Amino acid sequence: MRSERISRLATRRQQYTNESYNRARSLLRPGQPPIPDADCDEQRNFEADLFHQLLESNRDFTAYPIGIRRVSPQPDTIELVVESDQRARRLLSWLLPCYEPDGEVHGVPGLRIRQRTTRGVELHLVGQRTSVWLTGPHHEVWKSAESETLEHVVDIGWKVLWRGPERWSSEEIAFEYQWNRGEWARQFRAGAWSASGLLRRLGAFHTLTAADAVTGYKGLPINGYEGSGPVRWCLDVIHRSGTRRRKHDLIEALTDAEFGLPVSLAEHLDAIYPPESMENWIRLDDEARTGLIELRFTTCTYEQLQLSTCDPDYQAIAETVERRVRTAPRRLGRY
């Protein structure tokens, strides 16, 4: 590639990943898109599940979208640079699988730690071509986060699964067979490209918007589609009052032919809430109707943004919700 073109591609890639220029440039490859897709179904599905868990585990106010400072996507792996020690501890404890006797598998079934290095930790699914690097905080933070999770699991009498042999445990196999099969699981896999694609472009929510927070969840189906419809990702792009939303910049980036996703403005907007509350909602879907990205540009006051750290009553409620959510099993096949 010519130097001018490489420079342009690297600069543009930065907008989507929030990488440094040198990092973005070093990962460009001749014959590959500037932001490559996952190179196999297993990696794409893994990233979709990971994106889901990132959304579900994000219970605190974060400076970067769902607590990820930047991403570095490559065809066979992706690096997530976590913004803080607190986010790193919460995320790792959320992902690592364990078994509640006579109950459920908590965490991501089949997930194991492949490497623990000074760079961070590499996670993968047993028996699959999958990889994600969690980096950012010092390697001792990742070490202590794992140790704390291990100690907690043992203290409450649950079974640690992520330190087992490099094969699925009987508990994980049974859980996967019971919950992660059927129509909902097929729907999730069919739309996995949308979650993986958003994860690989997560930096755009920081570089192209003035959002104070970005949160989200996997939503229920809506009217207007055949059957169970596409997998629906609801993303709240939250701004303080008086801040320009720049929503068109983000839409243009996500629909860009070279750097974006294969999506366009959805032809309908099912009014699941009063129309006035959906005035700044934008939905994007693909031609096959397998993935739906719902962007909700909302406004709140600075006091509302800081509520979780300033209001003792709110904090108590949040902690109660967190305990319930943390002990709920993560299922692909159910909402």
In words, what does this structure look like?
The chain has 335 residues and is of the alpha+beta class. Helices cover 39% and strands 21% of the residues. The protein has helices at residues 3-17, 21-26, 41-57, 85-95, 139-155, 170-179, 182-190, 192-200, 204-207, 247-254, 302-305, 307-310, 312-326, and strands at 68-74, 77-82, 98-99, 105-106, 111-116, 120-125, 132-135, 159-160, 213-219, 231-240, 264-265, 281-285, 291-300. Helix 3 (41-57) packs across helix 4. The termini are far apart. 39% of the residues are buried. Residues 308-330 have low confidence and may be disordered.
Summarize the structure.
39% of the residues are buried. The protein has 13 helices and 13 strands.
* Total count of strands: 13
What class do helices, strands and sheet pairing give?
alpha+beta
Rough outline: globular
User: What proportion of the residues form beta strands (DSSP E)?
Assistant: 15-25%
**What is the overall pLDDT average?**
88
Number of distinct helices? 13
Please give the order of strands in the largest beta sheet. Answer: 1-2-7-6-5
Radius of gyration: 20 Å
Low-confidence stretches: 308-330
Distance between the termini: 45 Å
Helix content: 25-40%
Q: Which H/E pattern describes the elements?
A: HHHEEHEEEEEHEHHHHEEHEEEHHH
| Main sheet: strands, sense, barrel | 5 strands, mixed
